[in-house]
Amino acid sequence: MQTETITLRKDDDNVVTLVLDDPSGSANVMNDAFRRSLREATDWLVEHKDEIVGVLLTSAKKTFFAGGDLTRLREVTSDTADEFFTGAEAMKSDLRRIETLGVPVVAVLAGSALGGGLEIALAAHRRIATEGAGVFGFPEVTLGLLPGGGGVTRTVRMLGLADALTKVLGEGKQFRPEQAREVGIIDDVVPDQDAAIQAARTWIAEHPDAVQPWDVKGFRIPGGTPAGGPIKDFIPAFTASLTKQLKGAPYDAPYAILAAAVEGSQVDFDTASRIESRYLTQLAAGQTSKNMIQAFFFDLQAIKKGSSRPSGPAPRQARKVGVLGAGMMGAGIAYSLAKAGVDVVLKDVDDAAAEKGKDYSKGLLDKAIARGRSTQEKADALLARITPTGDPAALAGCDTVIEAVFEDPALKQKVFGEIVDHVAPDAVLCTNTSTLPITELAKGVQRPADFIGLHFFSPVDKMQLVEIIVGAETSDETLAAAYDLVLQIGKTPIVVQDSRGFFTSRVIGTFTNEGLAMLAEGVNPTSLERAARQAGYPVGTLQISDELNLELMQRIRKATEDALRAEGQPVPESPAGTVIDTMIEQGRPGRKAGKGFYDYDQAGKRGDLWPGLTKLFPVAEQQIPLDDIKERFLFVEALESVRCLEEGVLTSVGDANIGSIFGIGYPAWTGGVLQFINGYNGGLSGFVRRAGELQKSYGDRFAVPKLLQDKVARGERFEDGV
Ligand code: NAI
After folding, report:
1. pLDDT single digits (tens) 162-176
2. Which pLDDT value is given to residue 446?
3. Which of 347, 406, 436 for mutating ligand 1's site (highest number of atoms within 8 Å of CB)?
4. Distance, CA of 309 to CA of 297 (rounded, Å)
């Protein structure tokens, strides 16, 4: 029997194999054709149930099933919510009919099953994966959604509330087959597909009466269910991590998952399943999931496909990369390259300094081994790829160079001079400068067309973003090679044109300045830090300034002011600058010195806000509303990003969104700086109205750039490629 996306085949032994195989694309997704096919296939199974002894769920695609149809999900509105709910329920009722057919059902997973894909597999009585199957899990929470295809209801019944929430549902973790088996969402892992099918047939033969545990009379959820009393007493780990992670930030998905799991644990399966669908519908119709789907699915996917890469040059793989400077950044860059299988020559002033940089990788690997995340064998192979040296000639044959010496233009130009004759004649020359204009630096390097900025973030091994900065003379080939390298090492590139502060440093500068300006205005420093957290920022502006170091911020400001004067441009007043100068005068430049806006102990651990702060910057009697504090942060960064787009520093909306979330901690629920404007209450005109209010109350930083006004007039949004 053949439906649009599912083939049913009954074998001589009366086992029916369902092959999921959507002919319209490379992956199976939960589109209309699948829903229709599932209905037809289920009807057929029910009709023939007396003639069959078991069902195998398999896939003809590389991934078992790709999951929900996100294009469709992001179009759900409050007007179409009922229709969405009904559709979700219909599909779930078909899975339920298969689950309760009265014959054993086994899912054979030879490819990844995430989200909706895993939910299909959970309706089976047994899940057998192959060793190379890929990953399993529920990433829904990272898109502002919940697993509403039975994922919450079934995992709670399989694992118990606490484990389902903390291990599987709450953080969107993805598990390799063996880990998935340990967690309990996969039953068996076998070498390959043939072995899996064989194991499935054997299991069917041995379990003719298989039923789900929750369909057995007297079933109780493992670990029991909360009988009144506060939830935090029952599932402390999840609620504690929620409170810690979110700090009141407006992410609704984790709370909805918690509510659906707990409420669903008190009632029968079918009622629980309906509760779960209701919460999913609410989330899907809300703005946060649309923002997160935009950034974490569509924008990210576009970047991975090369949205900001020139299409002409052929793809290029780096094989041997020279890293100049084995300090904090150089050592981290070397590790990331070696981890991706690239050979690295790590050069510093002498062998000993370079060796020290290599030791950094060793330290990271020792930790990974101790946590069971790596093996000695893998660690040795990685370390063998890093050659430390003090000799420029050791860079012979390098196809790429990444410079990360001190932030001094003359030194940077000197170290490039030392190696340029040794490396391959077409080697790409990258600098990891965080502040120096690329075009200027390129003038001192012999091959400006091959020269480009590659701005990594600290700590390099954890931070996913790399900001690529294109100088005036950088060639398309160089940009393409840099883009390919960033993808090759598993990181995410954004591309910006050369300008002061590039994109990320410039925009985060407006965030810290806004916070420090509010302190000068008399906003209570405790409220200031709390408001940033509540808006969804990982850290407040006082904490981040302490981390960055106020002396560095002062140096950057002075350099910027000098440059503006040299260009004959006005130098704006800086209330933040006055705060920084005052703190430095007080001998409190930040965390490294053990004293900044916060106090620190001997080990550098952050304590409370410095009590002297409110003497220097008295708290005003009349405090501004908390919402204004939050929105001043969110708006000042969004508006600066629009200016970057207007000036051509940014050329892609997706790059702005992803760069802001991954690089500088702009809250993920917004979908990034420009998606925040798209999704603001009332859309772009709502945003412009509110910016007008902020401008009136707090200054011209909140003036709306012409590009945004024009978009409002034309009824457009911030979008790429449409
Ligand atoms: P660092 O001070 O930790 O390391 C600099 C290294 O360069 C030192 O090991 C030094 O011995 C080495 N060096 C100096 N002269 C050299 C020469 N002639 N040949 C080879 N090596 C030489 O500095 P860090 O923090 O690693 O910064 C390096 C660069 O990365 C700077 O341009 C900085 O602005 C930039 N950057 C820093 C970030 C951060 O968070 N620290 C973030 C992004 C960029």
Report:
1. 999 999 998 889 999
2. 86
3. 406
4. 19
- 433 CB within 6 A, ligand 1: yes
CATH code 3.40.718.10 for 320-498? no
Pocket test for ligand 1, best of 329, 504, 553 (most atoms within 8 A of CB): 329
Ligand 1 within 6 A of CB of 577: no
Q: For residue 722, name the pLDDT band (cuts at 50, 70, 90).
A: low
Percentage helix, strand, coil for the chain under 3-state DSSP, each rounded to 5: 55, 15, 35
pLDDT of residue 218: 92
Distance 329 CA to ligand 1 centre (A): 6
683 lines ligand 1 (CB under 6 A): no
ipTM: 0.97
Confidence of residue 402 (pLDDT cuts 50, 70, 90): very high
Q: Ligand 1 centroid to 454 CA: how many Å?
A: 13
Burial class (CB in 10 A: 0-12, 13-18, 19+), 397: middle
Give how far the C-alpha of residue 374 lies from the chain's centroid of Cα atoms, to the nearest Å: 23
* CATH architecture assigned to 6-285: Alpha-Beta Complex (3.90)
The DSSP letter of residue 164 is I
Is 455 among the residues known to form the active site? Answer: yes
> How far is residue 66's CA from residue 26's CA, in Å, rounded to a whole number?
10
252 C-beta closer than 6 A to ligand 1: no
- The three-class DSSP label of residue 601 is coil
Q: Decide the pairing of beta strands 105-109 and 126-130.
A: parallel
The helix or strand, by DSSP H or E, that contains position 655, with its residue range, turns out to be helix 653-664
* CA pair distance 490, 486, nearest whole angstrom: 7
Kindly report the average pLDDT of the chain as a whole number.
95
Which ligand 1 atom is at minimum distance from the Cα of 407? 32
Atom 29 in ligand 1: which residue has the minimum CA distance? 404
> Considering the domain 505-714 in this protein, what is its CATH number?
1.10.1040.50
pLDDT of residue 221: 93
Long-range contacts of 392-395 (CB under 8 A, 24+ apart): 392/347, 392/418, 392/419, 392/422, 393/422, 394/345, 394/347, 394/422, 395/322, 395/345, 395/347, 395/419, 395/422, 395/423
> Which one is catalytic: 48, 125, 422, 455?
455
Res 247: pLDDT = 65
Q: What is the pLDDT of residues 545-600, one digit of tens each?
A: 999 999 999 998 998 899 889 989 999 888 999 999 999 999 999 999 999 999 99
**How far, in Å, is the centroid of ligand 1 from the Cα of 324?**
8
What residue segments make up the domains of the chain, in order of their start? 6-285, 320-498, 505-714
How confident is the model over 144-197, as pLDDT tens digits?
A: 999 999 999 999 999 999 999 999 998 889 999 999 999 999 999 999 999 999
Query: CA 274, 277, 278 angle in degrees (round to 5)?
Result: 90
User: Do residues 279 and 146 touch, judged by C-beta distance below 8 A?
Assistant: yes
Phi, psi (rounded to 5 degrees) for 374: -150, 175
CA of 451 to the centre of ligand 1 (A): 18
**Ligand 1 centroid distance, CA of 332 (Å):** 11
